[in-house]
Amino acid sequence: MPLPQCPPGLDPGRLLAQLPAQLHGWAGSAPMRELVAAFGGDLPEADTGALLGWLDEFSDDHWNFRGRLGGAERDRVRVDLPERLAAAALVAAAELGLAGTGESPHHEYAHLLVLGGMARACLQRTEHAARLAAALRVGAVAALGSRRPLGAEERTLLDRLGLGGCETEADALAAGVRAAFGDRPVDVLAAPPRGPGAPRPNTADTYAFWAARARPRPEERILVVTSPIYVPFQHCDAIRVLGLRYRCGIDTVGFDPRLARTPQPPGAAGADRYLQEIRSAIRAARALHAACTAETGEPGETGEPGETGEVV
User: Fold this and answer.
1) pTM for this predicted structure
2) Coil, strand, or helix at residue 127?
3) CB 143 within 8 A of CB 90
4) pLDDT band, residue 311 (cuts 50/70/90)
């Protein structure tokens, strides 16, 4: 199923009119309907807002494995599903855009953004971004992360790969950038939390922090590089935070695990992980729809963080 489209320079009224129908097409698609049915649900016939709200509640009940563990990190969650449900999840993931590999729809981009994450993903994404930058016409490159402290397993991985000395996610991104891009200049940004006592910045916060510095223009295209499983939700967030506000074009791609020098860990493509990230995509789609229907048409839940972040 196609994800929402955000071409550069589109008239705001036209974009805001098109996105809800595109979101409905994804959320109400046959793959989503079949997945819901496999878990005993019946996807309602409803408008986009109501449909996404229903899916948010349904996915919280059935696919929110992290929530049941108090918001544990993604790599800490493992759930064994019956074979029938696991098979339904894998089929739906492929159809809903969580298992694509690496191809960009255009040949020229003003900005290439590499998203941070766990240390392994930082290396995989920077490697793929460097491959794309060599094959496409790309202007500025930036890697977007935070000062989240690395866990013991992440530091062990980096030490084993000869990339020791990293303490934070931004450090891991910087190490990946140096290994993948060589002498090409790449900004590595560590976004701040939204305010004192706030949780660490999320993907939308890193987009907003970068945009406050880069000020993308309406005629520019942005290519976002992440992991395949996160493409739908991080694409919706990019449209909400960047596309609606700056009217720039947004494309989002995942790296190809078959080409990554740092292999995926066991369970990375498990059915439980796909279900969790289908829920993430539903929530991001719901936030995007809310932004589209707001009076201003601007992101309502994520403002621009302050200028206290860092360029690493």
Assistant:
1) 0.91
2) helix
3) no
4) low
